[in-house]
Design goal:
There is one protein chain. It contains two helices and 13 strands; from the N terminus they run E-E-E-E-E-E-E-H-E-E-E-H-E-E-E. By secondary structure, the chain is mainly beta. The protein folds into two domains: 35 residues, Ubiquitin Ligase Nedd4, Chain: W, CATH 2.20.70.10; 162 residues, Nucleoside Triphosphate Pyrophosphohydrolase (Alpha-Beta Complex). Strands 4, 5, 6, 7, 8, 9, 10, 11, 12 and 13 form a ten-stranded mixed beta sheet that branches. A three-stranded antiparallel beta sheet has the order 1-2-3, with no helix packed on it. Strand 4 and strand 5 form a beta hairpin. 28% of the residues are buried.
């Protein structure tokens, strides 16, 4: 950030009095510009024993598969945002159910919230954000072509829970490790806690 959005003057990065984090502060009007994590909301659209995935038509990770998800907008709930993103990316209408997973991604300042949802019909298809939209059974999922670690983790947990016949809220952290190779530390919270290193 270079300029104050309130008065247009230059800002400086410093720790304001009474704070303990560096913030962008306007030297003219003294406005403190807080920057907070972004919420990403999405769905696991279910139809019988299949789930709906989208192949991305935009960067990042063009051409790879993901669940329909995106940044939450102002003036909407997380459920409304998840349904909107599913409609925008897959032209699919869903009934949004319970929150299934919540993952913290501190290395990119994002929090992912993914809801189980029920497809209302089979009238879905590609949009300007998706090259292809398809229903997959578990053994058909293109695991090596999943766009993001958080989506791979969510799907893995989802199919494990479905096999056991019991879904619980899954929470965890995905942290990118230092170095040239895209490697992550995945920590799953709760009764079945686990931590492991995974390559992207």
């Amino acid at each position: 950030m270079k300029y104050c959005s309130d008065c247009g003057s230059e800002v400086e990065l410093r720790v304001p009095e009474g704070d303990d984090h560096p913030r962008y502060v306007c030297g003219t009007c003294a406005t403190i510009h807080y920057q907070n994590p972004k919420l990403v909301v999405g769905c696991i659209p279910e139809w019988e024993d299949k789930i709906l995935l989208c192949r991305r038509a935009i960067e990042p990770r063009y051409g790879l598969w993901t669940l329909p998800a995106g940044f939450m907008e102002n003036d909407e709930t997380t459920q409304q945002g998840a349904a909107r993103e599913t409609l925008e990316e897959a032209c699919a209408r869903v009934e949004v159910g319970r929150l299934y997973s919540l993952f913290n991604l501190p290395h990119i300042n994002q929090v992912y919230l993914v809801f189980r949802s029920r497809l209302l019909d089979l009238d879905f298809g590609p949009s300007r954000e998706s090259l292809e939209v398809r229903l997959f059974r578990e053994h058909e999922v293109p695991w090596q072509e999943i766009a993001f670690p958080v989506i791979r983790e969510t799907l893995g947990l989802y199919f494990r829970d479905r096999t056991q016949g019991e879904f619980e809220l899954r929470t965890g952290d995905i942290v990118r490790l230092e170095g040239g190779v895209r490697r992550y530390r995945v920590s799953i919270h709760g009764d079945r806690a686990e931590t492991r290193i995974q390559a992207a």
